[in-house]
Amino acid sequence: MSRLRHPLVQVGLAVLLTAGWVVAGLLGVGMDILTTVAVSGLAVLGASFLLAWGAETAEKDVPRAFAIAVLAVLAVAPEYAVDALFAWNAGAGGATIEACSQLSAAAIEAGETPLAEACHDANLAIANMTGANRILIGIGWAGIAVFTILRAASTNDPAVESRDGLLADVVTLDKDIATEIAFLLAATAWAFAVPLGGGIGALDTLFLVGLYVTYIGLVLKSDIEESDHTVGVPLYFQQWSLPWRPIAVLALFGYSGAMIFTAVEPFAHGLEEIGLQIGVPSFFMIQWIAPLASESPELIVVAVLVNKARSTAGFNALISSKLNQWTLLIGTIAVIYSLALGRYGVLPFDSRQSAEIWITAGQSFFALAILCNFEISVREAIVLFSLFISQVLIEFALIQDLLVLPITSHDLLLVYTGLYVVAGVVLFAVRWRSAKLLVGLAADAFRSAMGNEPVHPERAD
Known about the structure:
Elements (H helix, E strand, L loop, with lengths): L6 H21 L5 H26 L5 H12 L1 H16 L4 H5 L3 H6 L3 H42 L4 E2 L8 E3 L5 H16 L5 E2 L1 H19 L11 H7 L5 H34 L4 H26 L3 H31 L5 E2 L2 H21 L3 E3 H22 L9 H22 L1 H18 L12
């Protein structure tokens, strides 16, 4: 092994990518926007490698699903921070369903008064959250599927299967992922009902956070599996003896988490400022550009896993990220809002944000219908991306008056929601046997965690 390929040298190079951000923070160095974006972006990149290595190393001592769940939480922590800030400002400013309903949409959008600004922040919390969730599927799931298949020629990834037909090659997923898909389907079904209450309240928090806690409890009882795909830095650390191995994992998680948490917000804010300077609307930047930046660690981590022929772990990470954002994120911002309000309250949002939640739930439903047969083809990935990007581009054109249509941007969201739901229903109907298998596997995982024998153990073959 050459010196440059030694695992500790690779760790050192990743840490070196974060050095500029650490030095700037310790010395209090002021930087212009472009320099901030460059330095913080490199820190995010380096931290993402460290995070991926930490998660892979942890698989030696904890169930793989739990290690990936921890990775997912750390990778999307900046998204939680951004949403928490908007939710806190909404509560501190006294934004309630009753108070915000007394203001016009124009006044809220312009932030004409402190109350109007607080109501606007409540809407931004929803916009940022829904934007992040749709990016994770529309770019993350779709992009990683295509990247996995393109890289298969070099990685010999056993999960990639070549098939006859136009864009028919597929990434096959481990059936163990049935548990995550089932929990995500339950969260998605609940999300459709969230706008009906006019805001996010205690019932939403109890169900969604409870769902995630149940999921974590379930995966903690899973068996620890030996992986024969571990190479490089993780394999090196896995060979360390106790207690040094878990110490290394905690160090990797702790340092990468600190870097991601501190660097992503300036990275996202810098991109926002650049966007505003070239004329991109602020609301559009907050919904799309900031979440894209905050999701970057997750996407980098998954790309690292795919590049090592670990596409199954990569997709597990993406689905786990979607699950914790679709449960913990929605549930906890309501708690933060109430703390800032000084009493229990329901985080309010307007009709536009109701439509944003519905289209996000619709996209999630359609994506799960694609994965219910435990595979995703290039063709399906392209459809998933095309639906996502076409809606974003058409909406941007409508907002900027670059396109004239007989519908508003709000109506556009509802149209796409309908497309997603109809397509998802059709796919589930066509693949009802696969859906039945998925539910059976998830139920068997629950029975196994409770110490009972699976009803259909042969299904895991």
